[in-house]
């Protein structure tokens, strides 16, 4: 369960307490758009999570640079979740 500062929908995993989330999409086109948005976010922030993906899902793991994720990595996770939402018409 997320605390006030922890991104909603993310899980803590592993000894370093990395953040993990699986994003599900209804079509490959949505998955691709999310991956492109995530790449741009990574370039802006310098945070490069581990990714695995299929045609309708993306698994994202954010590792803390020095152990547990810090505020920068938590902010990255929150922004990644926002980017996964469908665009408003």
What is the fold's blueprint, element by element?
Blueprint lengths: L10 E3 L4 E7 L3 H18 L4 E5 L2 E6 L8 H14 L5
Antiparallel strand pairs: 1-2, 2-4, 3-4
Helix pairs in contact: 1-2
Protein architecture, described:
By secondary structure, this protein is of the alpha+beta class. Helices cover 36% and strands 24% of the residues. Helix 1 packs antiparallel against helix 2 (71-84). The chain is globular. The mean pLDDT is 90.
What is the class in the CATH system?
Answer: Alpha Beta
Mean pLDDT: 90
The CATH architecture is 2-Layer Sandwich
Major β-sheet annotation: 4 strands, antiparallel
What class do helices, strands and sheet pairing give?
A: alpha+beta
List the secondary-structure elements in sequence, H or E. Answer: EEHEEH
CATH superfamily: Transcriptional coactivator/pterin dehydratase
Report low-confidence residues grouped into runs of 5 or more: none
Overall shape: globular
Q: Tell me the number of strands.
A: 4
Total helices: the number is: 2
Rg calc: 13 Å
> Between the first and last Cα atoms, what is the distance in angstroms?
31 Å
CATH topology: the name is Gyrase A, domain 2
Note the beta-strand portion. 15-25%
For the record, the count of structural domains works out to: 1
Keyphrases for this structure?
89 residues, alpha+beta, Gyrase A, domain 2, 4-stranded antiparallel sheet, 2 helices, 36% helix, 24% strand
How do you describe this structure in short?
Helices cover 36% and strands 24% of the residues.
């Amino acid at each position: 369960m997320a605390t006030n500062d922890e991104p909603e929908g993310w899980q803590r995993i592993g000894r370093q307490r990395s953040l993990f989330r699986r994003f599900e999409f209804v079509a490959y086109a949505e998955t691709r758009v999310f991956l492109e948005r995530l790449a741009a976010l990574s370039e802006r922030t310098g945070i490069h999570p581990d990714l695995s993906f299929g045609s309708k899902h993306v698994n994202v793991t954010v590792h803390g640079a020095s152990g547990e994720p810090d505020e920068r990595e938590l902010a990255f996770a929150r922004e990644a979740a926002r980017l996964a939402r469908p665009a408003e018409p």
